[in-house]
Design a protein that fits this description.
InterPro entries: PP2C, PPM-type-like_dom_sf, PPM-type_phosphatase-like_dom. GO terms for molecular function: [pyruvate dehydrogenase (acetyl-transferring)]-phosphatase activity. One of its GO terms (cellular component) is mitochondrion. About 30% of the residues lie in helices and about 15% in strands. By secondary structure, it is of the alpha+beta class. The protein folds into two domains: about 1-15 and about 70-160, no CATH class; about 20-55, no CATH class. It has a four-stranded antiparallel β-sheet with strand order 2-1-3-6. Strands 4-5 form a two-stranded antiparallel ribbon. Strand 1 and strand 2 (about 10-15) form a beta hairpin. Helix 4 (about 90-105) packs across helix 5. It starts with a strand and ends in an 8-residue tail after the last strand.
Length: about 160
C-alpha cells in the first residue's frame, strides 16, 4: 500500500517493496499453496520436496496506522491498495508516479478519475502482449498473476461525522 499526498511530493509507503525469493516463486509456480490454506498449515511443504512453506509465509500482517486527521488532504491525495500482481512488477515509486501523473491529467470534477487511475495501474502491471509475452516498461515481464488496484481518495477522511 502507498499513501501519495499529491502535488506536495510527499509519499509514505504503508508497506515495503518485497522481492520474491526463488523458493517462494517455486512454491507459487508449483501451485503448492493457496493463501487461506498456507496461513494455517504449519507442516505444509513444497510439492515433491522437503522445503517447508512456513518460513516464507507469515500469518502476522504488517500494520501501519495513518492518522487521517493529522493532514489536510486534497483531491490528489490517495491511498493505493493492490494485490501482489501489481506490486510484483511495479515499485512503490513507479505506482506513485503513475497515479500522480494520471490524476494531474484528469478533470478534478470527474467522478470516475480514481477508478480510471486504478484501471491504468492494472494495465501498466499487465503490460503489452509482444512476441516474447506480456511486457511492461524496459521490456520487463508483465504480471502473470491476478491484478487488482484500488485508488482511495483521502480528502474525505478529514471530515468529522
Amino acid at each position: 500500500m502507498l499513501f501519495d499526498r499529491g502535488f506536495s511530493g510527499s509519499r509514505d509507503a504503508a508497506s515495503d517493496d518485497h522481492a520474491v525469493s526463488p523458493d517462494e516463486q517455486q512454491a507459487r509456480v508449483l501451485a503448492t499453496i493457496g493463501v487461506t490454506r498456507g496461513l494455517g498449515d504449519h507442516d505444509l511443504k513444497v510439492h515433491d520436496s522437503n522445503i517447508y512453506i512456513k518460513p516464507f509465509l507469515s500469518c502476522c500482517p504488517e500494520v501501519k496506522v495513518y492518522n487521517l486527521i493529522q493532514y489536510e488532504h486534497k483531491a490528489d491525495d490517495v491511498l493505493v491498495m493492490g494485490t501482489d500482481g501489481l506490486w510484483d512488477v511495479l515499485s512503490n515509486q513507479e505506482v506513485a508516479e503513475a497515479v500522480t501523473t494520471f490524476l494531474a491529467n484528469c478533470d478534478p470534477d470527474d467522478l470516475h478519475r480514481y477508478t480510471m487511475a486504478a484501471q491504468d495501474l492494472v494495465m501498466r502491471a499487465r503490460g503489452v502482449l509482444r512476441d516474447r509475452g506480456w511486457r511492461i516498461t524496459n521490456e520487463r515481464l508483465g504480471s502473470g498473476d491476478d491484478i487488482c488496484a484500488f485508488i482511495i481518495p483521502l480528502m474525505y477522511g478529514n471530515r468529522q461525522p
